[in-house]
Structures are given as structure tokens and as C-alpha cells.
Design goal:
- Helix content is 24%, strand content 33%.
- The strands form two sheets. A four-stranded antiparallel sheet has the order 4-3-6-7.
- The N and C termini lie far apart (79 Å).
- The longest helix has 17 residues, at 2-18.
- It has helices spanning 2-18, 23-27, 33-38, and strands spanning 42-44, 51-55, 62-67, 72-77, 84-85, 92-99, 105-113.
Length: 118
Amino acid sequence: MGRSLQIVCLFCLFIFSYDKVSAQSINNIGQNPTELVADDLKVFPNPTTDYIQISNSTNIKKVVIYNMFGKEVKSYFHYANALHDVSEIKAGMYIVKMLDEKNKVVKSVKLNKTYAGV
């Protein structure tokens, strides 16, 4: 039985080595472009007092800010180089969700809103 298993394994190796699909494309099967870009999205400045921006946000259409209880605090329609005003939000920790045109969450990050007083 061990010999037949070796033959099957060698046959499988031959088939996969003959296939012209590269290792890179095998690793990317099932991933969509927004998943690949999500690592590049950054919310800044963080911590913030007055506004936030999002870098590399070409696929982002909406930004929603939630408090730590999951209640929506603020939402914005997003466009390239937009400044989103957070000056009215109380100081504390928040979750910023970035959504695409289908309202699918592309990325979520923590946001530290600090006090802007004197």
C-alpha cells in the first residue's frame, strides 16, 4: 500500500508542476481587489482632535464612525482627499468602518478622539 501511495503522490507532483498556473495566482484565488487594498488604507491623524483623512481610499464610498457600544455616531460620503470633521464628537475611542460602493466593509480601524480644549 505504501508503494501505491508514493506513485499517486509522484503523479500529483507531475500534474501540478506541469500546470502553467503560477504560485502567486494560486495564492490569490478567492481574493477580490478590495481585500488586497485594505492593508494600505490608513486613517490619519490618529489620535485626532478635529478631522480625519483616509489614505489610498479610491474604493471607499462611505465612512461610518461607531462608539464602543456599536452605536453609529457619525457617517460621511467619502471622496478622494476628503477631510471628515470629527470636532463635534466627544473625546474617546471609536471604530471607523470604511465601506465600498456595495456597502461592504472594506476595513475597520480604532480611532482615538482627543480633547481639543485649551
